[in-house]
Specification:
Elements (H helix, E strand, L loop, with lengths): L5 H8 L13 E2 L10 E2 L11 E2 L3 E9 L2 E5 L5 E5 L5 E5 L20 E9 L2 E10 H11 L6 H12 L8 E10 L9 H15 L5 E6 L7 H21 L12 E2 L12 H7 L1 E9 L6
Parallel strand pairs: 7-9, 11-12
Antiparallel strand pairs: 1-2, 3-8, 4-5, 4-8, 5-6, 8-9, 10-13, 11-13
């Protein structure tokens, strides 16, 4: 078993979410045969003039129905909030180049990490502001647009988004495939292409497997240049895995670039630098699902 370094895991998958208030919910679980999303029942909400400032909630959207959504935090506590015309929905980070102050309520998809400011009254919560990340929205949209998802695949998709919250120690690393690059380049060699599809094929045979793609550079170049290059290399690998090797996007954790950190060999020699100019494709299985 190959181990991902603790330093890299903490940078990539550090714990993000604090606890949140919870309230009762009637939820319909996802249908295991046709992938129907969970839903929540509707109840009457008092007018804003009769409400006070409520808790700030951080977690993952675990159900949607009409104007109401359920948010589950990392400890499993569930909160139900109502969304109305006054709710401000914002996205940060330029991953999708949206550059919008407000997003429609249709952007609030199951599996999406959110931070919610609320009003409370009459045992109900109303969302005044909902913040999310553009990169999370892209992943959640990929999940939502999947057309042939079995229940096990949907479970893996949810785990992929949850992976941003948890420590890498929650996963068993089943294997790691490294592909290498020329100095200053992000071009895949024919050998690298073959190795990537072989890795995807092996991972496909493992139930609940996810891929974690991490790009690296050698010590040549500035820190900013190496960061951008490592991210570009990781992106090139992700695109090839999805487009050519047919790895499903919702079974992939958010890729990242680690620049020249965590070298696998010494940067004092050309041979060592060649080994460090790499992208690592790690096959992970949640410890809770491994062997199921």
């Amino acid at each position: 078993m190959i181990v991902v370094s603790k330093k890299a895991s903490l940078l990539m998958l550090g714990a993000m979410f604090a606890g949140a208030a919870s309230m009762s919910l009637t939820a319909q679980a996802q249908d295991q045969s046709d992938g129907v999303e969970g839903s929540v029942t509707d109840t009457t909400v008092p007018p804003p003039s009769e409400m006070t400032k409520g808790p700030e909630i951080e977690g993952i959207i675990s159900a949607r129905s009409g104007a109401r959504m359920q948010v589950t935090n990392k400890d499993g506590a569930k909160s139900v909030v109502t969304i109305n015309d006054a709710t401000k929905i914002t996205a940060s980070g330029g991953f999708l180049s949206l550059n919008k102050d407000r997003l429609p309520a249709t952007s609030l998809l199951n599996g999406l990490p959110v931070s919610v400011e609320t009003l409370q009254g009459g045992g109900q919560l109303v969302a005044t502001k909902i913040d999310l990340k553009n990169k999370d929205l892209k992943t959640a949209t990929m999940i939502h647009n999947g057309t042939d998802q079995r229940f096990a695949e949907q479970s893996a998709a949810t785990e992929a988004l949850r992976g941003r919250m948890g420590d890498i120690d929650q996963y068993n690393v089943k294997s790691t495939t490294n592909v290498n690059f020329d100095t200053g380049k992000a071009v895949l060699s024919e050998q690298a292409k073959a190795d990537l599809c072989a890795a995807a094929t092996r991972a496909e045979s493992m139930d609940n497997a996810l891929l974690l793609v991490v790009g690296y550079t050698d010590s040549t170049g500035s820190e900013d240049l190496n960061q951008a290059l490592s991210e570009k290399r990781a992106g090139k690998v992700v695109n090839y895995l999805q487009q050519v090797c047919h790895w499903k996007p919702y079974r992939m954790l958010t890729p990242t670039g680690m620049a020249a950190s965590d070298p696998t060999a010494s940067n004092d020699t050309e041979e060592g630098k060649a080994q460090n100019r790499r992208v690592s494709v790690n096959v992970l299985v949640s410890k809770g699902l491994d062997g199921l």
